[in-house]
Structures are given as structure tokens and as C-alpha cells.
Design brief:
Blueprint (H helix, E strand, L loop, with lengths): L9 E4 L2 E4 L4 H9 L4 E4 L12 H7 L3 E4 L9 H14 L4 E4 L4 H14 L4 H12 L5 H17 L1
Parallel strand pairs: 2-5, 3-4, 3-5
Antiparallel strand pairs: 1-2
């Protein structure tokens, strides 16, 4: 078992892995692959979450951040918290996950527009690998609002 087996796995670089909820074995694999930081954007839900992901991650010597982004109510403050933490850990090998990699690809594509010079088209294309065919109006409005704000800051 490796991190490549994480649901909706995407490797952005040697330093960044994105995906859905990892299993305990996949988190242990992340530690073996020298991941230093795990950031979880999912809310805690016993149907999907690990019983004690924070404890497991920390027991393996990695740093754990939990930013519980409510699926039905993403907030700009959630993105701001993510932006600050992700910027702080940039350069460290990181596993960034949520339940199915929807929240993660949305937040990472917005981060990349804001800090990495990605165009809106690049961000949309990156997100489409997970989001294509989905219909989540709350998220589309949230993403459009943040893209507009980011473009006005550039």
C-alpha cells in the first residue's frame, strides 16, 4: 500500500500529494515516503474519517493540521486559514486531503492562482480532473467569488 492508492490521488510535485481520505495504512505509507505535514480539509464524520487521524499522524512524527471545511457551507475564512497554513509549510513534503479531493483541488487551485501565477484556465483545468461532471452550485459560487477576489489583487 502506498500514497498512490489514496482515493482520487493526485501528485502535484515531489513535495505535494493531494487526495481523498487516506486509510491508516496510507498515512503510514506517507510517513515512510517522508511526508512531514498532513493537512485535512474534511469535517470529522465517523462514516468517512479515521477514529483519530491527528493522533496517528503525530505518532508517526508528522505535523497535523485540521481545517474542517463544511461541504454545504465553504467559507472565505476557511480558505484564508488554509492559505496561511499552506504557505507556512511550503517546501515541506505535504499530504493535503479531504473526503474525496473536491475541497482540496478547489482550495489548491485558488492558492496556485494567488501565489504560483496560475491562470484561471490552469486552475479550472486542474480542478476539472476531479470536478468534471459534478454539479455543486454552492461550491461553484464560492470558487467564482474567490477567483474574482484573487484576480482583483493581482
Amino acid at each position: 500500500m502506498s500514497t498512490c492508492d489514496i482515493y482520487n490521488y493526485r501528485s502535484v510535485s515531489d513535495q505535494l500529494i493531494l487526495g481523498g481520505q487516506p486509510t491508516e495504512e496510507q498515512i503510514k505509507s506517507a510517513a515512510d515516503e517522508r511526508v512531514k505535514t498532513v493537512i485535512n480539509l474534511a469535517t470529522l464524520d465517523p462514516r468517512y474519517s479515521l477514529p483519530d487521524e491527528a493522533g496517528l499522524v503525530q505518532s508517526l512524527g508528522m505535523t497535523y493540521y485540521h481545517i474542517p471545511v463544511e461541504w454545504g457551507n465553504p467559507k472565505e475564512s476557511d480558505f484564508e486559514t488554509f492559505d496561511k497554513i499552506f504557505h507556512q509549510v511550503s517546501g515541506e513534503k505535504t499530504l493535503l486531503h479531504c473526503a474525496a479531493n473536491f475541497r482540496v483541488t478547489a482550495f489548491y487551485s485558488l492558492y496556485a492562482m494567488k501565489h504560483l501565477g496560475w491562470s484561471e484556465a490552469q486552475a479550472d483545468e486542474f480542478r476539472a480532473s476531479i470536478w468534471q461532471g459534478s454539479n455543486y452550485p454552492i461550491w461553484e459560487e464560492f470558487i467564482a467569488r474567490l477567483k474574482s477576489k484573487i484576480k482583483s489583487q493581482v
